[in-house]
Amino acid sequence: MSARPPLHVRAPLTARTRVCPHCKATILESANVCPGCRHHLKFDSVAAQRQADTRTALRIEGTIRSPRPAEPCEYCVVIAIRDERGQEVGRHVVGVGAMRPDEQRSFTLSVDVVPPPGPRPLKRD
């Protein structure tokens, strides 16, 4: 029996992104379900376990109405992300719209935390 050389292992790759083939949103490369359109992208046991280990770290829900009940209004939804020093690392306009005086809008913000993908073996030549 010949001895096989050990496989080299790469460190986990986190925060790598790709484009969802369905909705074209930028998502994590490791995602098995697109958080935007909810289409399944991967079907394997490792991806399923990572999805099961995902937890919602933050969830905020709220409803708005026009500040002046007799007048229409416009709204703009902006998400800002800051690091531990309070410096803004990302800012995105998520949506804009308008409401008639008798309308309301509800919003939900959720932040899911996903464990990093495990180390990947390097391919042999």
Describe the structure concisely for a colleague.
By secondary structure, the protein is mostly beta strands.
Describe what this molecule looks like in 3D.
2% of the residues are buried. The protein folds into 2 domains: 14-54, no CATH class; 58-112, no CATH class. The protein is mainly β and 125 residues long. The chain has 1 helix and 6 strands. A hairpin with a 5-residue loop joins strand 4 and strand 5. The strands form 3 sheets. Strands 1-2 form a two-stranded antiparallel ribbon. The chain has a two-stranded antiparallel sheet with strand order 3-6.
Number of domains in the coordinates?
2
Strands side by side in the biggest sheet? 1-2
Q: What's the order of the H and E elements?
A: EEHEEEE
Distance between the termini: 21 Å
Fraction of helical residues: under 10%
Strand content: 35-45%
Gyration radius, in Å:
21 Å
**Total number of helices:** 1
The class by helix and strand makeup works out as: mainly beta
Largest sheet: 2 strands, antiparallel
Mean pLDDT figure:
83
Spans with pLDDT under 50 lasting ≥5 residues? none
Question: What's the total number of strands?
Answer: 6
Envelope shape: elongated
